[in-house]
């Protein structure tokens, strides 16, 4: 396993970070999730990311149970706050002081831990003054319930304003967690340069583009049974924008590039995001333990310059890179 510093902080994290999420919280899924966590540990992963909203708290419970008995100081555990949790009441969401302070206590209770290493704002809250949000995060840190703070899917301007307040408050804003992959590069224009300047590292999610970059979706063919594209509970809508024939045809052209490097297409995709110097970790999930073991093999891989150029040529204009799209992740109405 390769380890990298999280931004300009002194904390090192595993370059492959395991993302713990559950959609339904059934016993079968919980058992598989636990097996995946154990495989991650066996593979050298020490960093785990979750959120209170995943399966309405069940994901945190499963992660906490799977990590029970491990030396806490040898792990880096991240969680997030913003989206509705619990019964979904008026204050069970957003980045108000009330929700943040209650949210961290709920997360720690479910995780069975005294603190998390990183507490992240899952989205930007346009309805709460940023000063209120950052003061609440600072108080969480001062109470010893989180060591660092981060954000997820914030624009460069939002990050800059939050960083200035964090400096005033004397706390460490160290990370950004955006979507990033060969196909989705919207952070490169503004977010990455801003974070490089301010000392934040990227913990990127969906490096395999919801599974599209594995090459398992073929143009003109039915989707594989049990894949995300067939999940009507939400997975299908999330992946749909990648499932056009042009994109899928271009993705198939990556197969020989991966083969020449001795990598699977999934490993190539994960290694590609790790090639960005501002990326501290690639966040990978798994529905089977063997997927975890495969993804770990991408750690430490260096893709040659000619292969990087070949990837760009293969994907061409299906790549999304407009930095203005970052702002679309900021909800404009209450998520209730």
Give a concise summary.
The protein is 37% helix and 14% strand. The chain is built from 12 helices and 10 strands. The mean pLDDT is 92.
How many strands appear in the DSSP assignment?
A: 10
Strand order of the largest sheet: 3-4-5-6-7-8-9-10
Number of helices: 12
Name of the top-level CATH class: Alpha Beta
Q: According to CATH, what is the topology? A: TIM Barrel
Give the terminus-to-terminus CA distance.
Answer: 40 Å
> What are the low-pLDDT stretches, counting only 5+ consecutive residues below 50?
none
Molecular shape = globular
- Helix and strand sequence: EEEHEHEHEHEHEHEHHHHEHH
* CATH architecture descriptor name: Alpha-Beta Barrel
Strand content: 5-15%
Average pLDDT over all residues: 92
Instruction: Please compute the radius of gyration using only Cα atoms.
Output: 19 Å
Number of domains: 1
Specify the helix fraction band: 25-40%
Name given to the CATH homologous superfamily: NADP-dependent oxidoreductase domain
The assigned structural class equals alpha/beta
Largest sheet: 8 strands, parallel, barrel
Keywords: NADP, Oxidoreductase
Pfam family, one: Aldo_ket_red
Protein name: Aldo/keto reductase family protein
InterPro entries: K_chnl_volt-dep_bsu_KCNAB-rel, NAD(P)_OxRdtase_dom_sf, NADP_OxRdtase_dom
Structure explained in plain terms:
The protein is 37% helix and 14% strand. The protein is of the alpha/beta class and 336 residues long. The chain has one domain (3-210, 266-302, 320-329): TIM Barrel, CATH 3.20.20.100. It has an eight-stranded parallel beta barrel with strand order 3-4-5-6-7-8-9-10, surrounded by six helices. Strand 1 (3-5) and strand 2 form a beta hairpin. The longest helix is centred in the first third of the chain and has 16 residues, at 27-42. 46% of the residues are buried. The mean pLDDT is 92. Residues 16-314 form the NADP-dependent oxidoreductase domain.
């Amino acid at each position: 396993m390769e380890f990298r510093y999280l931004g300009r902080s002194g904390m090192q994290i595993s370059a492959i970070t395991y993302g713990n999420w559950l959609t339904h919280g059934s016993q079968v899924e919980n058992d598989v999730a636990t097996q995946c966590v154990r495989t991650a540990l066996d593979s050298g992963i020490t960093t785990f990311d979750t959120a209170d909203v995943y399966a309405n708290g069940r994901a945190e419970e499963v992660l906490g149970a799977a990590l029970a008995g491990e030396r806490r100081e040898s792990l880096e555990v991240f969680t997030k706050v913003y989206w509705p949790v619990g019964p979904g009441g008026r204050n069970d969401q957003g980045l108000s002081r009330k929700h943040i302070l209650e949210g961290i206590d709920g997360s720690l209770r479910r995780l069975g831990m005294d603190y998390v290493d990183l507490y992240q704002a899952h989205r930007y809250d346009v309805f709460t003054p940023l000063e209120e949000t950052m003061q609440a995060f600072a108080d969480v840190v001062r109470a010893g319930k989180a060591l660092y703070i981060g954000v997820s899917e914030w624009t460069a301007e939002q990050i800059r304003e939050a960083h200035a307040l964090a400096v005033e408050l004397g706390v460490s804003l160290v990370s950004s967690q955006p979507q990033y992959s060969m196909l989705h590069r919207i952070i490169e224009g503004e977010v990455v340069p801003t974070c490089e300047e301010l000392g934040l590292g990227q913990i990127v999610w969906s490096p395999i583009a919801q599974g599209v970059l594995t090459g398992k979706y073929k143009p003109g063919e039915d989707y594989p049974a049990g894949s995300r594209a067939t999940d009507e509970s939400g997975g299908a809508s999330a992946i749909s924008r990648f499932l056009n024939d042009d994109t899928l045809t271009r993705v198939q052209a990556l197969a020989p590039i991966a083969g020449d490097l001795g990598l699977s297409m999934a490993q190539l995709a994960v290694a590609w995001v790790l090639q960005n110097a501002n990326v501290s970790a690639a966040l990978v999930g798994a529905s089977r333990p063997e997927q975890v073991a495969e993804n770990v093999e991408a750690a430490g891989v260096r893709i040659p310059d000619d292969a990087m150029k070949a990837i760009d040529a293969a994907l061409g204009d299906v790549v999304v890179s407009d930095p203005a799209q970052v702002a679309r992740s900021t909800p404009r109405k209450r998520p209730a």
